[in-house]
Amino acid sequence: MLQLACLLALVGIAASNSLAQQQPLSAPAKPNVIFILTDDQDAHLDSIAYMPFVQKHLLNRGTHYRSHYCTTSVCCPSRVSLWTGKLAHNTNVTDVNPPYGGYPKFISQGLNDNYLPVWLQEAQYNTYYTGKLFNVHTVENYNAPFAAGFTDNEFLLDPFTYDYLNSTFQQGRESPQSYEGEYTTDILTKKAYSLLDKAVVAQKPFFLTIAPIAPHCNVFMNGTGLDENPVFSFTEPIPAKRHEHLFENIQVPRTPSFNPEQPSGASWVKTLKRQNETNVEYNDHFYRSRLRALQAVDELVDGIFARLQDYDLLDNTYIVYSSDNGYHIGQHRLQPGKTCGYEEDINIPLIIRGPGIAENKTTDIVTTHTDLAPTFLQLLGIPLRPDFDGEPIPLTQADIEVADSKRQEHVNVEYWGFANGEGKYDFDLSAYNHTYKALRVKGREYNIYYSVWCNNEHELYDMTVRLFIFMVLRHLLSIDASKEKADCEQADPHQLHNLLSTDDKENQTSHAILGISLPKVVARLDSLLLVLKSCKGQVCVKPWKALHPQGEVTSLKDALDTRYDYFYKEKQTSRVYFDECARGYLLDVEGPQYNFESNDEGNSFIRDGLPWYEWV
Questions:
Q1: Fewest CB within 10 angstroms: 88, 151, 271, 599, which?
Q2: Where does the record place the Sulfatase N-terminal domain (predicted)?
Q3: How many helices (H) and strands (E) does the chain have?
């Protein structure tokens, strides 16, 4: 089964790369953008397969970025990174609630005057927004101050943001208005259409964000993050009446990581008990509720395209579809939720359609939420900002083909605080120690996840799929491919076998990546993570240059060259670790920070203009 899965995955990649080259990006001056941002939508639980209008209007007519990632897998920090183009350790918004996160933290960090909507208005764009902006944006603090940068808005406000049948919206400078008993996505849809109408009437280029809460769980809040002891009650999402009987026999995809027989993961995750039949049945119900809640979003998408067509704006409008973070239900025995660094939580949908964008195209180039703000600015002809932690996403067929070999291959993942379940069944309170740093590296010949938890446990998963190599060697070259076959059999795309587990010493000595022993690979990965957890600006985009300033190393494969063994063993001795498990970004407990001054030209690693490995 693993070989079949490997083969299917690689065949899909080959098919997507064989598409005819599209026309270069050539949009008329001053295009418009509509950004649809769902809440907690997965890329690994097949949700988009149940959204026919998203498939019709976006997947079939745009480019699907399958390797798109959030860098913090929870709402508010992820959204702040999206709107600022900066990682959470640079925004210092690391939680959904004060003191480390939420709208109050966004304000206190000075970000209300320095994020995408403000930059768009400075470039003479009208900006509109409806739906959820940030957590702890409430009926009490919505005007203290008002969110800057919007020509008009209809914000969802706490404590009613996640109440599907009792939402509260706040428009412009008006007082909040309650919509008790009405379905939240339908209300938002009407407001989105109204804002689009206003944008058209204004006859100026516009950027419209539509941010429904679906498929987030339903939450009753007795208080908000501004209160001392708020009580939140979580249930499955609530669909519109017209959708509540759909998908009656659908289950959570039964992948190998779903409620596995053996525990997996690290820290508190590996202590989770296997879910019983009652728990699994409820989680299937929770999953169906998510799919049902997304149907109103799917209808919204169809309505937006119909209106763009009526207004004759399709040829001059980019439509971007994504989510703030991913979601798990049962994987690694986890109850419904997010916040982990596993693939279900960090790999999320991104589809872009517009003038000149490749149609019906799928790509696996690595992109992240910190790339979206730079992408929007470049797309609209607005100068990029020098302090971005990301870079524009390639949008044309030609640019994507170049990026296949030249674009960065890493994702910096970071998280602080606790993890909470969102269904009926909760888990052990050890989840309050849920701070970690993680790294995803996806190259042509490797696919790796590496993490360090705040209790200093380590994880390493070799997610590489190598069956294609085995098939080519066996059938075309007629040589012994037993090693490649063994490699494929060891592939762990579902992250079930931690190669750095203290309970599994055998794998640590027998497993190799690109023919290199694990200790040497881990030395490179840990050094890369040390750079990324401290990085700012272009260092976050090109972290290998901090380690190899002459620029000869641009990938993990380059860094694994044997001539660098001395450097990573003897010179690069600092390792990623935590002094304690903190709830927020507190430098005193973050362990070593990379010294970016130690590797510039003229230091001990450069002598007579030659890199250290030429003279060691």
A1: 271
A2: 31-382
A3: 20, 22
Domain with 308 in it: 35-415
Q: Does the residue 220 lie in any domain?
A: yes
CATH at 269: 3.40.720.10
Number of structural domains the chain divides into: 2
Same domain, 191 and 272: yes
Q: What are the DSSP calls for 66-105, one per residue?
A: TTEE-SSSSHHHHHHHHHHT--HHHH---BSSTTTBHHHH
Alpha-carbon 329 to chain mean position: 17
- 346-400, pLDDT tens digit by residue? 999 999 999 999 999 999 999 999 999 999 999 999 999 999 999 999 999 999 9
Task: State the catalytic residue, choosing from 70, 75, 217, 535.
Answer: 75
For 271, which DSSP code?
G
Please classify residue 486 by burial: count the beta carbons closer than 10 Å to its beta carbon, then call 0-12 exposed, 13-18 middle and 19+ buried. exposed
CB neighbour class for 214 (10 Å; exposed up to 12, middle 13-18, buried from 19): buried
Residue 460 and residue 365 share a domain = no
Quote the pTM value: 0.91
List pLDDT tens digits, range 182-204. 999 999 999 999 999 999 999 99
Residue 75 annotated in active site = yes
pLDDT at residue 65 above 90? yes
Contact between residue 80 and residue 325 where contact means Cβ atoms under 8 Å apart: no
